[in-house]
Task: structure prediction
Amino acid sequence: MGNALLVAGTTSDAGKSVVTAGICRWLARQGVRVAPFKAQNMSLNSFVTADGAEIGRAQAMQAQAARVEPEAAMNPVLLKPGADARSQVVLLGKPVAEVGALDYRERKPYLLERSLECLADLRGRYEVVICEGAGSPAEINLRDRDIANMGLATAAKLPVVVVGDIDRGGVFAAMYGTLALLSAQDQALVAGWFVNKFRGDARLLAPGLEMLRELTGRPVLGTLPMLSGLWLDAEDSLDLTTVVESGASAGPVGADVLRVAVVRFPRLSNFTDLDALAQEPGVLVRWATRPEELADADLVVLPGTRATVADLAWLRERGMEAPLKARAAAGRPVLGVCGGYQMLGREIVDEVESRTGGAEGLGLLPTRVVFGREKVLARPVGEAYGERVEGYEIHHGVVTVDDSAEEAFLDGCRVGAVWGTTWHGALENDGFRRAFLREVAAVSGRAFVPAPDVSFAAAREERLDRLGDLIEEHADTDALWKLIEGGAPAGMPFVPPGAIGESGK
Result:
């Protein structure tokens, strides 16, 4: 059965997500009805589909690249790490369990069955399905119950291409070593390589590519140049500094730059909420883990977190509570989103996420939070500053606002220069974002003027098109088509560990 391909990587953050998205956009441009798929994703960066299912944010981005609506089948298993070495298991968009690593291992055969059902369903409804692996396919300690890499590829008979990050160094060793560690059955499905994040003179790289082909019997299907400024829905916090700084603009529209400090919680979630701020001209967004990094900020943001009580304790241990309270008292802007909003209240009652019972909040908003066992997953629509706002909600904590709040703010509230909301994605709405930034600038005394014509949606589309260009211009698209339609070529050579031939001399 053709019509599918698995994109694996030599390491995490090698570029699997962007290569998958690039192939999806390239195919969509050809008029192909294509869908992304990732059997298992471990990420705190998630999204809510139109029918209320929670999936990895990267798969939602890939669906946008494919120009289709994201759905639960595109990411059947999502793992969300918590504060106690346990993860929440989200199956087909709904949370079903909290497990440790060994407990989860026992569930894998069942989860593989569900994943294969989802993949088969997508392959029946779409012309092509581009699958993304997780981590490395050569994690030999996990291979016997793998559901995302070669376990999936073997069960579904998928051809596999492997992406390596040359910017890290050692890409040839990583590729050869990945193949050498696989069984003969798994190696037979590996059909080629992608060298990612290349910068330099391609003539110097060419001999290495030929040697890799001779050593492994597999061709390099593309050498993809480094692309900066993408900030496209990273799955985890491995590269958060780049995610924010790459979106920062070169200069302000008004006389002043607006400085935004975002508290970098240990279990930070849905950090893509900051992407729209980072791409706004004249807004400088940076991460903060120390109190002094909040001092000159015009706006401090407390973002979402998978562990509200634990990360609130971390914030206090880092000495950041006092400067936050001083900001509020002085009328300097603070914004809390989801878990950050919960921290701003007076009391948190949590018998679900942290199971610690009651905890005192920062007391900057007149709210009380009680964690419920049922997770709230929603796509709300509302209005603020006279602008339409669409967002999405992912939380166990239910916030109650008392009558002393000065005004409502989306589903949350505002007191002085402190705002709180459970809505993720609100700042992606251009009119609302500009109105909110004008308010922050006015309160902060900054001569900052938001750009009147910046469209976050258009910026995302432009970046997805760049990924499509990457594949169209730098990949062997004819070879990709053959793999998608016909699978891995028969007779792919087996490469035993250490079997370096004459080319390696």
